[in-house]
Amino acid sequence: MKSIAIDWEEREELAANALKPNAECRT
After folding, report:
1. pLDDT value at residue 21
2. From CA 24, how far away is CA 26, in angstroms rounded?
């Protein structure tokens, strides 16, 4: 359960991190 929760949070952070910098870099 803990592993899944961490993986889920990490995945969300990775997605947000990839989307945020990407949008900033693209603009």
Report:
1. 66
2. 5
pLDDT digits (tens, 9 = 90+) for 1-27: 677 777 888 888 888 877 776 656 655
Residue 8 half-sphere exposure toward CB, CA atoms < 13 A = 5
d(CA 13, CA 5): 12
DSSP type of residue 21: H
**Residues, the chain:** 27
pTM: 0.41
